[in-house]
Structures are given as C-alpha cells and as structure tokens.
C-alpha cells in the first residue's frame, strides 16, 4: 500500500511538470504582436530604397559596376575608375582632398568629390552635377566621360552604352545633317580631338568636332585647310543631328564654310560687357569692354576702336545696327593684336558679336 501511494505521488508530480512545460511553450509560441512591449511606440527603422542600378557597357564590354540616376533624373552618375580604366586611362585617387587624377598619353584631368568644377590640361570647366562618393567609389556625371574622356555616352532605360571614337560605327553615306552658322570664339588645336566653338563662349554656343574627313571651304567652294581657320571667322557648319547633353553641346562637323569675304589674320578676342562708349571728332565710336580674354594674349579689359570696316553682328553672323549697342550690352570683341601700352589697352576692332538680342538690319 505504501509503495502504491509513492508511485501515485510520483505520477502526479510528473503530470504537473509536463503541464507547466506545455503551457510555457504555448505562451512562447504566440505571435510577438500579441505580447505587450515597453517600446511599442518606437517607429521601426526602414531602409531607404536604393536607386535603380543601370548596367554599363564600354565598347560592348559589360562592366561590373553600375550607373544610377541622381538629382531628380537630371544626371546619370557613372563609376569613374571602372569606366576610365576600361577606356585605357589611369586613375590615381587622393584621399586627402577626395580627388582623382585621370591621365592617358598627353591628357590629364582632375575631379573632386562634391565640386562641379574640373580641370583638363590646365583648363577648367564645369559639370551639370558634382561628383559623388557612393559605396566607396567616386561617381561622375556622364558629361565628364563625354567632354574629358572623349567618349560617346548613349543612355536608355536600364542601360548606358559608352563608345570610343575608334569603336563608333561608320556613318551612312546619306545621313541626316543640320546647318548652324556662327562666329568662331575658340579653336581647340589638338591632333586627336580638334574642334571649334561657335555662337558664344562657354557654356553657350556649340562645339564642332572635326576629323580628317571634315571639308573646309570658302563660300565659292574654294578649298581651305584646318590651319586656315581663325578666331573671329563667321562659318556655316554642316554637322550631325546627334549632339551630346553637355554644356555646350558637341557634335561632329562634316563641312565648315567660311563666309567672310576676306580671311582675317590672327585676331585676339574678349568676351564681356560694354562699360563705356566714347565717340571721337570723326564720329567713330570706341567701346570699353570688361570681361574675359579668349586667348593667352587677349585682354580682360580692352578699348575697341570702331571703323567703317568693323563688322557688328549677332551670334549667327547676321549684321546688327551699331547704334543699338548701349552701355551694359554683352559682346564678344575681336581685334588686332597690335595694341597701345595704355591701361586699358586700345586696339582696332575687326568684328564685334552682340550677345544681347538686338533688332537686325533689314
């Protein structure tokens, strides 16, 4: 009897322990939402959605990195090192000032994270958006690849195709073209990437890239050479309809026709504002122009003496009325390199391009 009672007590104890274990397990298995929490009012941390990655191809080779849209879709950002090295450039990174030097042959460019300004062979230019450090990599706008690395960037939904000049397909014989007329404000005399800038100074106007196939001629179709082009010439360009999205836009030139009746010699140029207008006893006007010289020898401040032979035109080379120029008018003046030693220097004006909209001569 005693043994039976002992066995019964042991069984009851084991049953109670099993019930407790089952109850505890059931409570632990309840959804967390049904359990009270002291931090119930704290908002959960939600990761921001990442920008959609865009695949990149360089001359048909798919890169491991990806591009992305930034600044509300206004800029396509590309991984600088991956793209530049695929194009044959060397990239050197400086952690001290978060800048990169990109070089190949005799070309060198520099960009800095967070700065729109960049340099190419000693000249400065600006990007539509500042380079960014994303996931430890420096990303630059596509405009830098086009303007500094001289590649063509085609952007479509979900992909970016980058093509070097050597890999670009030949243009068909009957291709769609456009014509643009303007005054030459800059000549880039580079064996690989020669170009002329018309219809304004940076970032305005249009950059015309030339090649060994570009034809140079006068209005009567007399043949000219690349070396005949001069600052201040009015040219009519037949060029491709395709243009880069950079500022200024760039396109390939097929034919450059010089419209000037007489070919000028070497000229200097200054882009700026007419600060003062003077008139001599013979009725000839002089303009004091303050701004920026277009070449190393050009003056930032210059007094331009007008004569009966001075051409005054708009950005397309069409004549405008000289009397319409007033104090404050923005102009680009082209003048003889012979100047007085006064401050500011005085020179004979050959052609003045009026950037402000003025009534044209009938």
Automatic annotation (TrEMBL):
Q: Does the keyword Signal apply?
A: yes
Provide the alphabetized UniProt keywords.
Signal
Matching entries from Pfam families are given as: Cu_amine_oxidN1 (PF07833)
Q: Where is the Copper amine oxidase-like N-terminal domain?
A: 73-162
Residues of the signal peptide: 1-28
Q: Transmembrane segments in this chain: where?
A: none
What name goes with this protein? Copper amine oxidase N-terminal domain-containing protein
Source organism per entry reads Paenibacillus woosongensis
């Amino acid at each position: 009897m005693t043994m039976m009672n002992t066995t019964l007590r042991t069984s009851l104890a084991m049953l109670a322990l099993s019930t407790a274990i089952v109850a505890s397990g059931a409570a632990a298995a309840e959804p967390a939402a049904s359990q009270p929490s002291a931090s119930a009012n704290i908002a959960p941390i939600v990761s921001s959605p990442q920008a959609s990655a865009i695949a990149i191809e360089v001359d048909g080779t798919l890169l491991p990195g990806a591009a992305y849209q930034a600044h509300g879709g206004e800029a396509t950002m590309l991984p600088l090192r991956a793209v530049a090295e695929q194009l044959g450039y060397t990239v050197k990174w400086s952690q001290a000032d978060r800048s990169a030097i990109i070089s190949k042959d005799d070309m060198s460019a520099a960009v800095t994270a967070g700065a729109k300004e960049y340099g190419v062979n000693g000249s400065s230019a600006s990007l539509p958006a500042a380079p960014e450090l994303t996931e430890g990599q420096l990303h630059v706008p596509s405009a830098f690849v086009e303007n500094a690395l001289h590649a063509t960037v085609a952007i479509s939904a979900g992909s970016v195709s980058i093509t070097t000049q050597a890999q670009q397909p030949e243009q068909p014989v009957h291709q769609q073209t456009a014509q643009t007329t303007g005054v030459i404000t800059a000549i880039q005399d580079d064996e690989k990437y020669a170009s002329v800038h018309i219809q304004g100074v940076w970032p305005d106007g249009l950059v015309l890239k030339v090649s060994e196939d570009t034809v140079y001629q006068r209005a009567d179709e007399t043949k000219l050479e690349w070396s005949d082009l001069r600052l201040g010439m009015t040219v009519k360009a037949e060029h491709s309809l395709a243009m880069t999205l950079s500022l200024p836009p760039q396109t390939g030139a097929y034919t450059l026709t010089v419209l000037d009746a007489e070919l000028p010699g070497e000229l200097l140029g200054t882009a700026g504002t007419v600060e003062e207008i003077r008139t001599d006893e013979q009725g000839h006007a002089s303009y004091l122009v303050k701004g920026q010289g277009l070449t190393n020898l050009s003056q930032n401040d210059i007094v331009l003496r007008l004569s009966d032979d001075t051409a005054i035109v708009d950005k397309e080379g069409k004549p405008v009325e000289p009397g319409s120029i007033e104090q404050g008018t923005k102009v680009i003046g082209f003048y003889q390199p012979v100047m007085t030693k006064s401050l500011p220097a005085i020179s004979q004006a050959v052609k003045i391009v009026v950037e402000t909209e003025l009534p044209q001569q009938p």
